[in-house]
Write a structure and sequence with these properties.
313 residues, alpha+beta, four-stranded antiparallel sheet, 34% helix, elongated
Length: 313
């Protein structure tokens, strides 16, 4: 039994070490790249747009381009043609949009540009906080501002694309929702790197306590039910099951809020850590409980074989 206990403990430590190392390897490093969406222009396909990204990490700065479709999804890279002229205002029928230079701000007109109202804006104090999230930003009036706009007519209305400098691409979908797509980034494919959260954005749900608590309970139940069925779970084995459940709950809880890394969303990496950790912990808890020895009872001697008590004369 001592050998089995040592084996279970070694498996638990291997689970903890392997999951922790795996999580650390997936954590994103500091991204010091200086990329900026400097222009948007109409693409050749219907509803598409050509996005110009300037890389300031090379001297002189170098432009690269990509094509977005009407849903704001990257379709392919484009060879760098002549630099497109930046349009501060663009229209689709009577619907016109214009950017306000020096701000993260877009205005809209429903009467072909006669009058304009607010369409989307990041307030000045919010932009100051946002600027602190970008390393080596430079002048926010230039590098964190709306630079150009494109409006494309599509089947059910129109879509809008805005070049917002270091904040990336701003996109208005066909039903009127505005989305900060982020910065197009290369590497393992081309994807959008999510922009920092604005002060005005709602706080995202923190699923860590729920995921960690659920994993803890599941592993604990596996060990407890196995011990109840066998009617044997000594205190040391019960403590081992509790420890394994705590380790699994801690790892899975921390992994539940994994950041986006590369072209895959954070929940993909969370699942890669959570599911194997939970499965291994359940197996270990089962093994610890099922190998627990039942308490021994005194052997009953048949009446015919019992020795008579000695008599004293």
């Amino acid at each position: 039994m001592q050998r089995e206990s040592r084996l279970a403990l070694a498996m638990a430590m291997t689970l903890l070490l392997g999951s922790t190392v795996g999580a650390c390897r997936l954590l994103p490093g500091a991204d010091a790249a200086i990329h900026e969406v400097t222009a948007v222009a109409p693409g050749e396909a219907a509803g598409s747009v050509q996005v110009t990204v300037t890389d300031y990490d090379v001297d002189p700065p170098k432009d690269w381009k990509l094509i977005l479709d009407e849903r704001g999804e990257i379709t392919h890279l484009s060879p760098p043609p002549a630099p497109p002229s930046a349009h501060l205002q663009a229209c689709a029928g009577a619907e016109c949009y214009r950017v306000v230079t020096g701000e993260l701000r877009v205005q809209v007109s429903h009467d072909s540009g006669a009058t304009f109202g607010e369409a989307w804006r990041v307030a000045s104090h919010t932009r100051r906080h946002l600027a602190a999230d970008y390393a080596r930003l430079g002048d926010p009036l230039i590098h964190l501002s709306s630079r150009s706009v494109v409006v494309r007519s599509v089947a059910r209305g129109h879509v809008v694309f805005v070049a917002n400098g270091r904040d990336g691409v701003l996109y208005r979908d066909v039903v009127g929702g505005w989305h900060r797509l982020g910065m197009p980034t290369g590497g393992e494919g081309v994807y959008f790197k999510q922009p920092p959260r604005l002060d005005t954005d709602p706080e995202p749900l923190d699923a860590r306590p729920f995921v960690g608590g659920a994993a803890f309970l599941v592993v604990l139940l596996v060990g407890a039910i196995t011990g109840a069925i066998r009617r044997a779970l000594p205190p040391l084995r019960a403590a081992a099951v509790l420890g394994i459940a705590a380790v699994a709950g801690t790892i899975d809880g921390l992994a539940a809020r994994f950041p986006d890394v590369g072209m895959f969303p954070g929940y993909f990496y969370s699942a890669v850590i959570i599911l194997p950790t939970l499965a291994c912990a359940m197996v270990i808890a089962f093994v610890v409980a099922v190998t627990a020895g039942r308490p021994t009872r005194p052997r009953e001697v048949p009446p015919g074989l019992r020795r008579a008590p000695p008599t004293h004369r």
